[in-house]
Design brief:
single chain, mainly alpha, 2 domains, 0% strand, elongated
């Protein structure tokens, strides 16, 4: 019975020497296992061992620089890259989901909303301005503008004109005018 075995004949991690621990971790890494997988395998043999404990041994003994570990890691990355590529090819070959039929909006007494998209009908490049007020509205009654957007914005030209203009007496407009007058008085703005 070695020093690393308890009375029942099981190996105990705490009783291993630093070199035995290093060899055990290095053996797992050379087999191409990740840190988490190495910790799980060592836990089966020696009892509970955490991933951070394995990381500490790797860093302390600089196991990540061992040539055998480096080549095993490169081989594992190559295998994973091939697996990822095959999964990507499988996704490309997968059939696209069938398009949902477009259901006309329910009549709400307002015929202008009859052809407007709901949240679920909006697509990229469509105006996202909501066409309902501040009162509570059912989701089936919430429509969006849906017109083609201005490049770089979320709204169409008409909605941009309404949403991005400032009123003549608004505080931001007054502040901008005062700043402009100040810059002009100092000769910093023509």
């Amino acid at each position: 019975m070695s020093l690393a075995e308890d009375a029942l004949g099981q190996l105990v991690w705490a009783d291993l020497t630093a070199h035995e621990k290093r060899d055990a971790v290095a053996g797992q890494l050379v087999e191409g296992r990740s840190v988490a997988e190495a910790a799980a395998q060592l836990s089966i043999i020696y009892g509970p061992i955490g991933k951070n404990h394995v990381l500490g041994i790797i860093n302390r003994h600089q196991l990540h620089t061992f040539p055998a570990v480096v080549s095993a890691r490169a081989k594992r990355m190559e295998v994973e890259a091939r697996a990822n590529a095959s999964r990507a090819r499988a996704r490309v070959r997968a059939l696209p989901a069938p398009a949902l039929p477009k259901v006309p909006a329910p009549e709400t007494g307002n015929s202008q909303n009859a052809e407007k998209p709901t949240l679920f009908d909006l697509k990229a490049g469509q105006c996202r301005r909501p066409l309902w007020g501040k009162n509570e509205t059912e989701i089936s009654q919430k429509f969006y503008c849906g017109a083609p957007v201005v490049e770089g914005k979320s709204y169409c030209a008409g909605c941009c004109a309404e949403l991005y203009t400032t009123r003549a007496g608004s505080k931001p407009a007054e502040k901008a005018r005062r700043s402009l007058r100040l810059l002009q008085s100092r000769g910093l703005w023509a």
